[in-house]
Write a structure and sequence with these properties.
It contains twelve helices and 38 strands. It is of the alpha+beta class. It has three domains: 225 residues, Beta-galactosidase, Chain A, domain 5; 306 residues, TIM Barrel (Alpha-Beta Barrel); 96 residues, Sandwich (Immunoglobulin-like). The strands form seven sheets. Strands 6, 7, 8, 9, 11, 12, 14, 15, 19 and 20 form a ten-stranded antiparallel β-sheet that branches. Strands 21-22-23-26-27-28-29-30 form an eight-stranded parallel barrel, surrounded by four helices. The radius of gyration is 27 Å and the shape is globular. It binds alpha-D-galactopyranose. The site of alpha-D-galactopyranose has 11 residues, from loops.
Length: 732
């Protein structure tokens, strides 16, 4: 049983294949966290508890032991209002203004079937779920803290539900998804920071005393920080060392933090950002937090990533399935920008014939009167100036040339110059009479309002129902400002950002349910909303508006810390690149993009015959390795964030291995050529040491043991930005 309860010691033990998570009900019915780490046999861990002189740490009245202060104990779901000064998981205010909480264990249930989270994306399945009912004394406010174990993935999910069983209104001011107290501060904090065009760069720093938090206050997870945090032992690398990882299945404002106290313990937390958040809970109502995904790895960051990848591939909404055929897409954005008409699109489509591309995606500019980014968002009807005969001739042209048709939309937005805004100015998030902000000259629609999501269900639904569309790129090109909803009363204004997310999830649930044949691709100015919440509905996302292969080495390696490579869309784009003007070989661009959901973002009409032939070769090769990218185990071999002594810095290598270890795809890319560069030997990972593999490109046979323990010497590259791949096949 992955979840056990020892009634003598009142201890709960949650076991995955390689880890244990243990807590117990202690004196006074308080929940103490005991342990999270390598798998343990059932054991009484009470002797782990620290006893130390804790002056200025409060005790419960009547207690004489100085060692059990609430400020010192490792808590399982800490609340504000007792003696714990560390960051709480929950804060609430009662109608008399009191904010004092005292949560105690009441009962628990172990379930076989995991209940879904109302209105929120979450993992499904799991081996067992534990629901702990806690109650505040004397108000009676109930908090249900839930855990689900995914044994084989070494993952435990957590969330909380606050049920107002008090008979009066309660205001929830903070409700995090998970909080874990670790007995040491001897960790590095690893986060994914970034910016537009430079998303998910790995940043690692040693923990220090006090609070260190990664967060978003933007109403979207954002380019700047990702809803993820890892704590890694200082010696942990890709293959060895302890790592704790936490990710949030949520696409709005979040916080992921580590707080180190004066006793050198660390409180790891993740959840909804309490900044500008509060939620009015009437009697009988309940509030559910998003779900946190926690994983422990004793085998470094690589194992942490594979744990996340496996659980997302196995249990996260549309990402599920071991081999999803991701279509090879060509997108016209960098080929034409806004400057196209029916003839131009059709000649572009015709030029794709025979190249092995599955889907043509028509990007921004096809609707309203949109000739640039100043107008028309919200007017989801065809731009007759550009496409006088509608979408049909373009779709027919795709079909005639052996491709499906996809389309770009940005439903959450409205341009001031649009019919929608002229009709419903109050549907935008802003406060009438106050100055307001635009971003890319557009406003955000108030998705906390039912009439707005109903309108979008109807208009986007009609677009998909009336046209033969198999792919939708769903963009979102600014973050929320002017946080005011004309649909909410004054005392519910701080609910807006979370209600926006619930509205968006409801809209996506409706559309993905009604149009199951459509593949949705998420996008937000590139990778500005790359999180497990969006991936639940949209199994892949445009990873960055920076389509340069060399920039993508870091962006894709960083993203892979948490998200499966098949969730990243990556396209071969023009050279010189449009974002950084870098000139990169076609082969390098292909190999980097093929390490993800593959496609093109260029004009085939501008290519020479050699490049066109290269496309046909790349698409044929991608069909051979598509199942590895979609369902294989991913290993980062050389991390592009690591500078190497002696030159040869920030090159990158990674590989995909089939689940049965019979095949692998290895990619190696060099950034800058190093004069008299030292030879580079790379040790592969994840192979079967007893097997002999044929490496096609080297026309030679190699033992799995040799490749993993001795390594493979890379050829000396004379040129910058060169790359190569190896295709490994087990010799029968
Ligand atoms: C965003 C996207 C791009 C493209 C443009 C269109 O920036 O990330 O890929 O779709 O919008 O306006």
């Amino acid at each position: 049983m992955p979840i056990t309860y020892q009634s003598e010691t009142r201890t709960f033990q949650l076991d995955t294949a390689h880890s244990s998570y243990i807590f117990r009900v202690y004196d006074g019915d308080y929940l103490f966290h005991e342990y999270w780490g390598r798998k343990l046999r059932p054991v009484d861990l009470i002797r782990l508890h620290a006893t130390c002189a804790s002056g200025f740490s409060p005790n419960w009245a009547g207690y004489t032991s100085t060692s059990q202060s609430l400020d010192l104990i490792p808590a399982e779901y800490p609340v504000y209002g007792g003696g714990d000064y560390r960051s709480p998981a929950m804060e609430a205010a009662f109608s008399d203004g009191s904010r004092l909480l005292d949560l105690k264990y009441v009962s628990h249930t172990i379930l076989k079937q995991k209940p879904s989270l109302p209105g929120l994306p979450a993992l499904d399945g799991g081996d067992a779920t534990l629901e702990l009912a806690l109650a505040d004394h004397p108000s009676g406010l109930t908090v249900i803290v839930s855990y689900t174990v995914y044994e084989e993935c070494d993952v435990i999910t957590r969330h909380a539900e606050i049920v107002n069983t008090t008979g009066e209104m309660v205001r929830v001011n903070r409700a995090l998804s998970a909080s874990v107290d670790l007995g040491s501060m001897d960790y590095d904090l690893i986060g994914l920071r970034g910016a537009y065009l430079r998303e998910r760069q790995v940043e690692r720093r040693p923990l220090r005393h006090g609070m260190q938090a990664l967060e978003s206050r933007r109403g979207a997870s954002g380019h700047q920080m990702n809803p993820f945090l890892a704590l890694a032992a200082p010696n942990a690398d890709e293959e060895t060392g302890e790592v704790y990882g936490a990710a949030l299945i949520y696409s709005g404002s979040f916080i992921a933090s580590a707080e180190v106290d004066c006793f050198n313990t660390t409180r790891l937390q993740i959840g909804l950002n309490p900044f500008d958040f509060s939620w009015k809970l009437e009697p009988g109502e309940s509030f559910t937090t998003p779900e946190a995904v926690l994983t422990y790895s004793a085998e470094g960051l690589g194992r942490m990533s594979r744990n996340f990848h496996t659980v997302f591939r196995g249990h996260l909404g549309k990402v599920k399935g071991t081999r999803r055929p991701n279509p090879i897409v060509i997108n016209n954005w960098e080929a034409t920008y806004f400057d196209f008409d029916e003839e131009k699109l059709c000649s572009l489509i015709r030029s794709c014939k025979g190249l092995g591309i599955d889907t043509f995606v028509l990007d921004d500019g096809w609707f309203g009167k949109r000739d640039d980014d100043t107008t028309s968002l919200g007017d989801w009807f065809v731009h007759r100036g550009k496409l006088p005969n509608g979408l049909k001739p373009v779709i027919d042209c795709c079909r005639e040339n052996g491709m499906s048709f996809g389309i770009w939309v940005e439903p959450e937005m409205v341009s001031e110059d649009s019919e929608l805004y002229r009709t419903h100015p109050d549907w935008a998030i802003q406060k009438e009479g106050r100055p307001y902000c635009t971003g890319r000259q557009q406003l955000v629609l108030d998705l906390s309002r039912r009439e707005v999501t109903d309108y979008l269900k109807e208009t986007i639904g009609r677009l998909l129902a009336e046209n033969d569309i198999s792919y939708v790129k769903w963009d979102m090109n600014r973050n929320i400002t002017d946080q005011y909803s004309s649909g909410l009363p004054a005392d519910r204004q701080p609910e807006l950002l979370h209600r926006y997310m619930l509205g968006l999830y409801d809209l996506l649930e409706d559309l993905t349910d009604r149009f199951p044949q459509v593949v949705f691709e998420g996008c937000s100015g590139g990778g500005g909303r790359f999180d497990a919440g969006m991936l639940y509905y949209m199994p892949q996302a445009w990873t960055s508006d920076d389509s340069d292969a060399i920039e993508r080495l870091k962006i894709q390696a960083g993203t892979s810390l948490v998200y499966p490579p098949r969730c990243m869309t990556a396209h071969v784009s023009a050279s010189p690149n449009h974002q950084v003007e870098r000139v990169t070989p076609f082969k390098t661009r292909g190999l980097v993009a093929m390490s993800a959901s593959f496609g093109y973002e260029l004009n085939p009409l501008s290519l020479d015959e050699e490049e066109r032939a290269a496309i046909a070769e790349q698409t044929a090769y991608y069909h051979r390795i598509n199942d590895l990218v979609a369902g294989g185990d991913f290993y980062r071999l050389v991390c592009p964030f690591k500078q190497r002594p002696n030159g040869g810095g920030d090159d990158a290598a990674w590989m995909f291995v089939s689940p049965d270890k019979s095949r692998a795809f290895v990619m190696y890319a060099q950034r800058l050529a190093v004069p008299a560069g030292p030879p580079r030997r790379i040790r592969l990972q994840g192979l079967d040491p007893r097997v002999v593999y044929r490496i096609e490109e080297l026309d030679g046979d190699f033992g799995g043991d040799e490749l993993m323990y001795a390594g493979l010497t890379m050829p000396y590259f004379m040129a910058d930005f060169d790359a190569l791949c190896f295709t490994l096949i087990r010799k029968i």
